[in-house]
Amino acid sequence: MTGTSNRSVERAFRIVDELAENGSGRVSELAERLDMPVSTVHNYLQALVSTGYVAVEDKEYSTTTRFLEVGHRQRHRLEVFKAVSDELQDIAAETGEHVTLLVEENDQCVIVAVQEGPDAVNLFAYPGARMPLHAAAPGKAILAHMPDDRVREIIDRQGLVEMTKQTITDPDVLFDQLERIREQGYAVDEGERIAGMVCLSAPVLDKGDRIRGAICVCGPQSRIDEARREEIADIVQRSANVTQVNLDYV
Amino acid sequence: MTGTSNRSVERAFRIVDELAENGSGRVSELAERLDMPVSTVHNYLQALVSTGYVAVEDKEYSTTTRFLEVGHRQRHRLEVFKAVSDELQDIAAETGEHVTLLVEENDQCVIVAVQEGPDAVNLFAYPGARMPLHAAAPGKAILAHMPDDRVREIIDRQGLVEMTKQTITDPDVLFDQLERIREQGYAVDEGERIAGMVCLSAPVLDKGDRIRGAICVCGPQSRIDEARREEIADIVQRSANVTQVNLDYV
DNA sequence: AGAACCATTCGACGGAGCCGAACGTTTACT
DNA sequence: AGTAAACGTTCGGCTCCGTCGAATGGTTCT
């Protein structure tokens, strides 16, 4: 973790990030936005094209489906993903809401799979989308099953960023909640990440009790009252258990 | 398209490719497989980790979900993908078979979306998977709607690789078929890519008659006789038309 | 036809990447 | 437990390769 790095690699991926962000770009446009010399950007783009990760069409550069491919292969190797198989779909049908599978990666909470039920609200949720661990039900479910010092490290590095007025920003409050989550077996989040949304999430553990991910159901506060909340909590816990069993027999 | 390149970029992506291929890897393992000095690979991996595209856990390096994210964003911007919306699902339900959306990229035919019907055979098909254009129904549907000299260029660069005994390897035969495909509005492939599989595919064109992609249904030869073939051909053509209309109104 | 803009090529300079070797650390075997 | 082998990581000096200004060629305006 020393400062050792490689300028070219860093720059190449800054260009990729820029392309991913804005969909496509021309040489000079990118050069300006990234504050690099035009000829340099041109060189990088040529190099990227020759790798197959970037394509040109009429001087418009864009990322290729190679990213999809690499991403999908990687996802396929995530054992949780295999184990969760049709569970997500079942939950989506049963609850009608927005269902996701998330894992931890680089101190963040990442969506791995999305399944929208018939009544699902349109969230900005797609595979690969990231969010802070502390500011959402699945993230908290994951933190609850990590060693305390690991949690503290994450807080140190990432802080407890406020996403809405409900977001937990006090470490003590967070640790209290994590304890409760361990006791009751699932996590709740009431507008802590997105105002007006309630999320319920259960952790998926493997046989060594290591945390592998979390299953999450999200819906608007107006539709999810106390009773419904308990019902959904039961469903996600049941599914997490099924997944856990699948995980051990893969 | 000159030889101008960037060694660092090339090497960085060779490492990524290797990780994508084998799922994960350790420093020395990768160093040997890629025939690079250990310390060099170590440097690259550190650089890649700092970009967020690669992660380490217990000295095991692997690609991150960042690839999924970039891939999904890119796919979302593919207008065909938006336009095809629920069509794939409908076809999968109606035919029971394996349904895909494909586009051309870098002289190749790439799967963009997959929808498996209830009876679908388990093909090795995932978003991002690539195949030669000449050796499959969707590829031929796409070639049929490209300018002839563009097709010739592709043949020059890629050749007509033989994938099964049925694969078309003679340019003249190919050009004859492309003409027939234009006439009848859809393409057929009988075991040209995978022995024993029949695929039917219709091209999706935009209002400028530019080819944007192809919708494809695949199933085992045993199940798809003459009559069924016509039925499916009608379905994919109808869906391609719907998609085309959507495309113009997006 | 001229002007403005952009992509692409070229080449000389200098700093950044490179890798062998040394150092720690983990794993495997006795 | 002790030793050896294998591996990951750090270091630093040499050199090669990336860098970017300037020139070129092409395209799209007015």
UniProtKB/TrEMBL annotation, chains A, B:
Highest taxon listed in the record's lineage: Archaea
Protein name: Transcriptional regulator IclR
Domain IclR-ED: from-to ranges: 66-249
Keyword Transcription regulation: yes
Gene Ontology biological process terms in this record: negative regulation of DNA-templated transcription
SMART domains: HTH_ICLR (SM00346)
Organism whose genome encodes this protein: Natrinema gari JCM 14663
GO MF term (any one): DNA-binding transcription factor activity
SUPFAM superfamilies on file: GAF domain-like (SSF55781), Winged helix' DNA-binding domain (SSF46785)
Keywords: DNA-binding, Transcription, Transcription regulation
Domain HTH iclR-type: 6-65
Pfam families from the UniProt entry: HTH_IclR (PF09339), IclR_C (PF01614)
